[in-house]
Amino acid sequence: MTSTTPPVRRPAVPSPAEWRMLAVALTATLMASFDLFVVNVATEALRTGLHAGDAALELVVSGYGSAYAAGLVTGGRLGDRYGHRRMFVTGMAAFTAASLLCGLARSPGELVAARLAQGLAAAVMVPQVLSLVTLRFPAGHRGRATAWYGAVSGIGAVAGQLLGGLLLQADVLGLGWRAVFLVNVPVGVVAALLALRLLPPPAPDAPRRGFDPRGAAGVTLTVALLLAPLSLGREQGWPAWTWASLALAAVTGAVTLRGQRALRARGGEPVIDPVLLRTRSFARPLTAVGLFQLYFGAYMFTLALLLQAGLGAPPFTAALAFLPQAVLFSAASLLSGRLTARYGTAVPLAGSALAVVGLALLAAQVLAKGRDTGALTLMPELAVVGLGNGLLLSPLIGQALSGVRGPDAGAASGTLNTVQQLAGSLGVTLLGTLFFTLSGPDLTAAHHGTAAVTGVFIALVTAVALMMRDGRRRTGGRAVLDPSDDARAHPGAREVPRRFPEGA
Could you give the CA distance from residue 391 to residue 503 in angstroms, rounded to a whole number? Predict the structure, then answer.
């Protein structure tokens, strides 16, 4: 009698083509992040060179982010419907064209319109990045891919401030502020051409997904109505239109959500899938990502104000103070995938602890020295915060995507990106208001404002850590799809246990 040992099934490994695909796709993440931050160092140049008033400057800065956030969910679903390569190339081409229009703008109105177009184009191209990761990378290797996503986001943020400052200081070809937008044009052209060659087309037998234009319009309108007052309300003293917009956002959001539920009940494909939001393996890390971005958006905003307005550092010196933080954030993000696969939740929990320690040291130093604090003397504390943030954010994103089915990749990616943008804007508004209130006129007491908001930052990071710790306790250290949730979402599907998070 002979027995046959079944062959061992080895886990799939990403091919070199997948990594080349990711490298090209991440140009969208880099460019979108770069343009979110680069205008912060160009505001004075725009004021003098383009004669832009305060209202126009606010729209140049916030209009891009608002349009970007408003279109992300729809951009993700368009990728599901028409193919992720097609929508990536379309978005990249539109972003490149909008960047050219920004660089050629002759009036503040033209620049604002071009920035809105930039944001909408970014909303089309960026969700395709995480969608392609979900579809093309084996589950056990998504952590490394999302780690690169987090690292490139950080690189884009610091490049926006450092490279933007260098371009303005060098006055390349006498272009002045226009160079910070025109630098996107050659990068975008090359990225679009490479995407046509290296990004995969839809599978020949892939079903043609439906698209819900009514839901897309409702989601976009709701986010726009929410973000416009959050972005502009504080500077304008919260006039009546801001409160009316927030109230209308609540109404349109409720009507849209009701319509999405009804469409799902009829067997349709809503832009935001209510079942996906009720699935614990997605909803829990999505909430944690939102709490992190609530802290992170306000942290970057108030820190820039502390360094430049509160401590009197010039823009380039302030950008140098950010540099070690950004480098360690990117390095930690890249390592987090491999480390989390080996040590599990200990890695993001250690990241949260490092972030808390760095924030506490930052608050202690600015309180002790006040306005005599040197911007560059804060670099060690900021480096510790950056290291902790890098070990924390990428595993959160990886966990959120670990249980997502391929057909839901666009919806999940768009929803995740939208939550990040919304939470970041909400953090800037709420915690920024607290910072300004406690910092006094002309931010003369910025050290007191910084200490106060840092206490809130520590509380938010601690809340994220407690959510992750509680999630590990509920699942015995393993993140699994909730059986009842998965059955509701995908009848007949078999539950598959997964390590937390599925990375590296």
Answer: 13
Asked if residues 348 and 395 have their Cβ atoms less than 8 Å apart, the reply is yes
State the Cα–Cα distance between residues 271 and 220, nearest whole angstrom: 10
Tokens of 362: 């930052």
Going 130 to 133 to 138 to 143, the CA torsion angle's sign is negative
| Cα-to-chain-centroid distance, residue 153 | 7
* Residue 92 and residue 192 in contact, taking contact as beta carbons nearer than 8 Å: yes
Whole-angstrom distance between the N-terminal and C-terminal Cα of the chain?
A: 42
Could you give the CA distance from residue 482 to residue 469 in angstroms, rounded to a whole number? 17
Under 8 Å between Cβ of 163 and 179: no
In 155-207, which ranges are E strands?
none
Query: Nearest Cα to 208, choosing from 407, 489, 412, 413?
Result: 407
pLDDT value of position 403: 67
- Please tell me the distance from the alpha carbon of residue 75 to that of residue 318, in angstroms, as a whole number: 34
Say which residue the tokens 């003293």 belong to.
237
Look up residue 89 and give its two tokens.
């190339």
Main-chain dihedrals φ then ψ at residue 14, nearest 5 degrees: -60, 135
User: Model confidence over 317-371: pLDDT tens digits?
Assistant: 877 888 888 889 888 888 887 888 788 888 899 999 999 999 999 999 998 988 8
Q: Which two tokens stand for residue 102?
A: 């920004």
pLDDT digits (tens, 9 = 90+) for 308-318: 788 888 767 87
Query: What's the DSSP call for residue 50?
Result: S
Q: What is the pLDDT of residues 114-166, one digit of tens each?
A: 999 999 999 999 989 988 888 888 766 777 787 788 788 878 877 787 787 77
Distance CA 390, CA 57 (A): 31
Identity of residue 427:
G
Residue with tokens 């009546």: 240
What residues have CB less than 8 Å from 501, skipping those under 6 apart? Answer: 143, 285, 340, 395, 398, 399, 402, 479
Q: Which of 239-253, 255-269, 379-393, 452-466 has the lowest mean pLDDT?
A: 255-269
CB within 8 Å of 474: residues ≥ 6 apart: none
Residue 494: which residues within 8 A CB-CB, separation 6 or more? none
- Kindly report the length of the chain: 504
- Decide if 146 contacts 26 (C-beta within 8 A): no
Question: In sequence order, what are the beta bridge partners of 497?
Answer: 480
Q: Of the candidates 456, 141, 408, which has an alpha carbon nearest to the alpha carbon of residue 269?
A: 408
The rounded distance, in Å, linking the Cα atoms of 503 and 141 is 5
> What are 246's two structure tokens?
């927030």
Q: What is the DSSP letter of 171?
A: T
Cα 359 to Cα 363: distance, rounded to the nearest angstrom: 6
